[in-house]
From TrEMBL:
Gene Ontology CC: plasma membrane
PANTHER family according to UniProt: AMINOGLYCOSIDE EFFLUX PUMP-RELATED, PTHR32063
Keyword field contains Membrane: yes
Protein source organism: Escherichia coli
Domain of life: Bacteria
Lineage: Bacteria, Pseudomonadati, Pseudomonadota, Gammaproteobacteria, Enterobacterales
The protein's name: Putative multidrug efflux pump
Length: 224
């Protein structure tokens, strides 16, 4: 279920890319939906396959983990990869057919949704895209400075990653604690019971506000 939640974005992203590129070609070049779809797939087909290969390289190895880790993540990995492969197949087979069949022809320079909210959204998006391009151009003119900043940030991330404690499963506060007492070899059962009673009395006397109950258990080590 968790893998399906994460895969929702993968299931629609590839199809959205195909539809948007087809509409862009129709608007910029005035081609029919069929011609624009054919040209669009020639442009982005390699990118779709590349995305699928990259994601597979990330998640497929998780299916071959051994032990408890593999048992937990195997189904997760298989679900993600299967959803991603189906998404790419739909984007390369079904979506182009739907674009060529259902999209309405556009005149050169025309866009769908030129009025109301869509017009405002497209305007704001194009404005922000231009700002982003200008910002990237400025960074490229001072590439050495930004490379140094990137290396420093990367070094800081590595330092913090090495310093932070890690564990396979995080410890949880279950509202209980354990006290273990081991008597010397040769101690009798009566001596053990006496010590256990002293510990129980201590908790009920000095820690009565912090505990609700005390459970005592006796066991014997096989080696003495």
């Amino acid at each position: 279920m968790f893998a399906m939640v994460l895969a929702i974005g993968l299931l629609v992203d590839d199809a959205i890319v195909v539809v948007e590129n087809v509409e862009r070609i129709m608007s910029e070049e005035g081609l029919t939906p069929r011609e624009a779809t054919r040209k669009s797939m020639g442009q982005i087909q390699g990118a779709l396959v590349g995305i699928a290969m990259v994601l597979s390289a990330v998640f497929v190895p998780m299916a071959f983990f051994g032990g408890t880790t593999g048992a937990i993540y195997r189904q997760f990995s298989i679900t993600i990869v299967a959803a991603m492969v189906l998404s790419v197949l739909v984007a390369m087979i079904l979506t182009p057919a739907l674009c060529a069949t259902l999209l309405k022809p556009l005149k050169k320079g025309e866009h769908h949704g030129q009025k109301g909210f869509f017009a405002w959204f497209n305007q704001m998006f194009n404005r922000n895209a231009e700002r982003y391009e200008k910002g990237v151009a400025k960074i490229l003119h001072r590439s050495l400075r930004w490379i140094v900043i990137y290396v420093l940030l990367l070094g800081g991330m590595v330092f913090l990653f090495l310093r932070l404690p890690t564990s396979f499963l995080p410890l949880e506060d279950r509202g209980m604690f354990t006290t273990s007492v081991q008597l010397p070899s040769g101690s009798t059962q009566q001596q053990t019971l006496k010590v256990v009673e002293q510990i129980e009395k201590y908790y009920f006397t000095h820690e009565k506000d912090n505990i609700m109950s005390v459970f005592c258990h006796r066991w014997f080590w096989p080696w003495g």
